[in-house]
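Quick one:
INPUT:
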């Protein structure tokens, strides 16, 4: 019933029990998972997971924090892999800007953000966008590179409802995860109240950002029930409606045909 739009099951945090955990997803109501690439090693692991599990799809891209060593050859490899595995690789991501840390330099992050947006246009794939303390530059680059033509999702949204409005105007969806359950999450709760339900995606960013009551522990897709219930309360609707609508949103954005899912 739930579409998990952003997970990192390639992460070493899942090494002890990855298979055991993933084999419980369907029985726990998780219909789809998108595993998101973030650095070069994770891209191959994402491809492997998408091949191994019918309900796992993949996104390939380089996180802004890992762009310092990125090369044109890396992007050629990504392009070739997507063209070969196009039935299961459904987005470019996660890509974007992260100004929380001082490195890589902003100009390096911007350069590779634009390059990966170009790749997304070339392959006609939506993008999974990471933006941390970089709202203006992120929005400017997305506008300049016509992101509305391919669509995408602003992952782990952490900005104001005004920024959310700008994202919506560019044909972007908004990814909401466990942070919305935190007591101090006023800004994201206000944004969630403003964003139409048909533009929201559920995500964990697991193994990170577990919702209450698991905050600080390893996150996983089954905890999305807490996120969906919180959104339902904020928007005065049912849990079932949130799950169904956000699943339909993700299927639409990522162009996944439900008849191709074999569980």
């Amino acid at each position: 019933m739930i579409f998990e739009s952003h997970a990192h099951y390639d992460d070493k945090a899942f090494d002890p029990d990855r298979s055991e955990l993933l084999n419980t997803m369907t029985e726990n109501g998780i219909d789809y998972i998108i595993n998101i690439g973030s650095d070069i090693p994770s891209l191959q692991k994402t491809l492997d997971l998408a091949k191994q599990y019918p309900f796992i799809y993949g996104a390939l891209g380089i996180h802004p924090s890992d762009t310092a060593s990125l090369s044109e050859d890396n992007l050629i490899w990504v392009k070739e892999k997507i063209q070969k595995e196009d039935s299961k690789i459904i987005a470019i991501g996660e890509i974007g800007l992260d100004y929380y840390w001082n490195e890589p330099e902003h100009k390096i992050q911007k350069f590779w953000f634009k390059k990966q947006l170009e790749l997304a246009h070339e392959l006609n794939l939506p993008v999974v966008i990471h933006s941390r303390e970089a709202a203006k530059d992120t929005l400017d680059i997305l506008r300049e590179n016509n992101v509305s033509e391919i669509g995408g999702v602003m992952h782990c949204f952490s900005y104001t409802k005004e920024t959310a409005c700008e994202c919506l105007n560019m044909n972007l969806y908004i990814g909401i995860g466990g942070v919305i359950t935190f007591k101090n999450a006023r800004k994201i709760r206000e944004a969630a109240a403003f964003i139409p339900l048909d533009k929201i995606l559920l995500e964990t960013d697991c193994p990170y950002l577990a919702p209450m009551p698991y905050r600080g522990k390893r996150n996983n897709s089954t905890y999305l029930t807490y996120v969906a219930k919180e959104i339902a309360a904020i928007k005065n609707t049912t849990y079932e409606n949130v799950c169904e609508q956000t699943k339909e949103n993700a299927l639409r954005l990522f162009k996944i045909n439900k008849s191709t899912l074999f569980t």
